[in-house]
Amino acid sequence: GESVGLHLPTLSVQEGDNSIINCAYSNSASDYFIWYKQESGKGPQFIIDIRSNMDKRQGQRVTVLLNKTVKHLSLQIAATQPGDSAVYFCAENIRGFQKLVFGTGTRLLVSP
Amino acid sequence: GAGVSQSPSNKVTEKGKDVELRCDPISGHTALYWYRQRLGQGLEFLIYFQGNSAPDKSGLPSDRFSAERTGESVSTLTIQRTQQEDSAVYLCASSLGVPGGSAGELFFGEGSRLTVL
What does the DSSP 8-state code read for residue B74? Predict the structure, then answer.
């Protein structure tokens, strides 16, 4: 079936640390993956995406890694800041289906 | 407006009443999505519009849920005879293209929080 799950429901880090948020997906037909950030009371906001023909993509302070062998996705945030505190969702698009399937989310708490 | 706009932002209703939730997508975005987010959970897909047609309604939980879109713009999600388990935030998103394709990024509104007493 279609499912995207996360290993860690809550991640607490100190300001300046690097954060790693993990996600497992189950559908081998998924060909596009996205990380979203959701702050309290707001809608999800796009962070970074990656296609299945890549295994790494970097943005500003963020890196997404994709391991198709074990169906694993991770988001790395460098030098985490208090403003990074939010819930992070991974989402997948299954080839041929025009919708995103979202995971449960991981709450990132950054202490100053 | 510049972003996706949803109304009402908060709605409290009594069990059994009907509710309508509205979404104004970004101008020119042909694709529109409705998702439901229960407290502390991820987003559940409800329905997808391409223009005014809905090629994927597979996420609508029951026949009490319906949605329409007119003029390739505004969409309304209607929940009839609301139940307590319908309490959630209903999120709308729009995009120029399809996920994974060119201009396929989904832009979300801030959601309509529905509480059924």
Answer: -
What residues have CB less than 8 Å from B49, skipping those under 6 apart? B31, B32, B33, B67, B69, B75
d(CA A69, CA A10): 26
Summarize pLDDT for A37-96 with one digit per residue, the tens. Answer: 999 889 999 999 999 999 999 999 999 999 999 999 999 999 999 999 999 999 998 887
Of B91, B99, B100, the CB nearest to A43: B91
Q: Are B48 and A100 in contact (CB under 8 A)?
A: no
What is the Cα–Cα distance from B51 to B70, expressed in whole angstroms?
8
From the list B74, B76, B72, B73, the residue with the least C-alpha distance to B18 is B76
CB B99 within 8 A of CB B45: no
CB contact under 8 A, B42 and A105: yes
